[in-house]
Amino acid sequence: MPLKGEFYQRDREWHPKAYTHDYKTSVARSPRQSLISLENTVSEITGPRFGHGDIDPGDNDLIYNYAQSGESAIGERIILHGRVLDENARPVPNTLVEIWQANAGGRYRHKKDTYLAPIDPNFGGCGRTITDENGYYFFRTVKPGAYPWRNWVNSWRPAHIHVSIFGTAFAQRLITQCYFEGDPLIPHCPILKTVPMQEGIEQLTAALDLNATIPLDTIAYKFDIVLRGRRSTLFENRLEGN
Amino acid sequence: MVQKLETLIESASQTAGPYVHIGLMPTYAGNAGYYDEEIGTTPFLDESKAKGEIVEIVGSVFDGTGWAMRDALIESWQCDAGGVFPGDKGADPAFTGHCRFAADAESGEFTLRTVKPGSYKGRGGVESAPHISLWVVARGINIGLNTRIYFEDEDNANDPLLNRIEQRPRVNTLIAKKTGDGKYRFDIRLQGEGETVFLDI
Ligand SMILES: [Fe+2]
Questions:
Q1: Would you say which domain of life the source belongs to (chain B) (predicted)?
Q2: B94 near B45, Cβ under 8 Å?
């Protein structure tokens, strides 16, 4: 049965603004007019749903999902795991989580990436999974490298993994990025600094999770993701015609 | 001090970046075959069985300088031709309602091939005009932009969202223009003259 509640409004002071001067590309790509605020309609409180039939079991293992048989990706082996929750602190089960990232040298397998660090023949750089009944997900991958990008002459992205989440409705659709505890580039990144509040940045920074590491094998980082919460309909405010 | 609320706050959005296609459309990024099946390549499970009129909507996403962006990625979500959302009772089993598509790396043009949505009754029994919801992401877009496609050959007069727009000329930015049989043009302008109406949903 599809969920029907409307969503709490997005906190536009918590999210980055569209126009962020120091992230140069946003200047010409940001609307100048105000967004029109819209009470949720059925178009927003429903959304596409995916299941295990849409993906393969190995899709969440980036160390091996592009590698020749018998080989594996080069880099620091990590587990990235956590839960997808909503603003009511409830798990979001059975939702699709997709990630993409640079390789250990900071190079993307994309025809537009021309950084001099080499492509790793055994690393593709994308993965996907579906959260379990507790909202839990995990990936195995290599820690991405920092890479330079053209903003100022000398701009470097902190190590990061891009994360895309569907949730249960179009209104919950979210793309964000996961950073790593202790990265000295974090305070210098114009993209990360589009997030206005320090707590917002901390929420995007995965914690080293020693208890989840596999000894002599793989380091772990914990990264929980929060999606918008649905209002509970204690007193009914019907969206659909009566 | 007062009691603490047991609530969390949504993770802050970050730009999808220039390489979003690696993760969401590997074939587009030059990595065909990465997955056996990519997500959202078409909203049809079986186009030959889908009910309703099949339409093709072509357009570009223009930045504030009038340049057609080559790297925009869009997702659409809509009801079926009968006005029922996929997943709800009675929805067309041949249709998923969701599609992922991107501006062409050479021309900057995108194409969405889908069914023309029906209308449905919303709050207070008011019928909304047929529309497709869009979510636009790209490098330089810090938080995905929501908008809608309406159709110029439908009756849009009583649509609750369109009627909310104070400056009437701006309504046109949400209306796809008919260019042929089942063919429409819908351009998205991020900024400046003719700026598309974006929604805080
Ligand atoms: Fe990146």
A1: Bacteria
A2: yes
